Amino acid sequence: QIPLVESGGGSVQAGESLRLSCTAPGFASDNCGARWYRQATGKQREWVSSISTDASTSYADSVKGRFTIFKDKAKDTVYLQMNSLEPEDTAMYSCGPVGFMCSVSYSWGRGTQVTVSS
Predict the structure, then answer these.
(1) How many CB atoms lie within 10 A of CB 28?
(2) Of 54, 32, 23, which Cα lies nearest the Cα of 105?
(3) I need a surface site. Which of 40, 91, 104, 112 has the fewest CB within 10 A?
(4) What is the Cα gyration radius of the chain?
């Protein structure tokens, strides 16, 4: 399996934006969807957003209207655009594959840390 690589995390103030990236060779092909999860210190892992192989998207209620997931096939990358960040968004964000063939080919990344201060 090819490990996915996340990047784009950082420390920001509430109200600011970040764009997370999840990439690997061939990852954003039509065979692959993707999902983002996050885990804050001391809390359970939480699903954030998904994009399916037909490019339909879904979001957790806590991020709906603020986060956008999308793919760039030319760059083999899935992005999570995060706007209007809140301190409650502070967590380690990781991405994983969606779809049978994609899940066989790719493994979850190690994550990227997002810290939002008030």
Answers:
(1) 23
(2) 32
(3) 104
(4) 13
Let me know: does 43 contact 49? Beta carbons within 8 Å: no
Query: Residues 25, 33: contact at Cβ < 8 Å?
Result: no
Residue pLDDT, tens place only, 2-46: 999 999 999 999 999 999 999 999 897 888 999 999 999 999 999
Of 50, 51, 26, 48, the C-alpha closest to 39 is: 48
* DSSP element (H, E) containing 43: none
Neighbour tally for 35: CB within 10 Å:
21
CB 39 within 8 A of CB 112: no
Helix, strand, or coil (residue 41): coil
Contacts of residue 91, defined as CB under 8 A and 6 or more positions apart, other chains included, come to 38, 39, 40, 43, 46, 113, 114
Are 29 and 19 in contact, with CB atoms under 8 Å apart? no
Q: What percent of the chain has pLDDT over 90?
A: 91
Can you say whether residue 82 is alpha, beta or left, with left for phi > 0 and alpha for psi between -120 and 50 degrees? beta
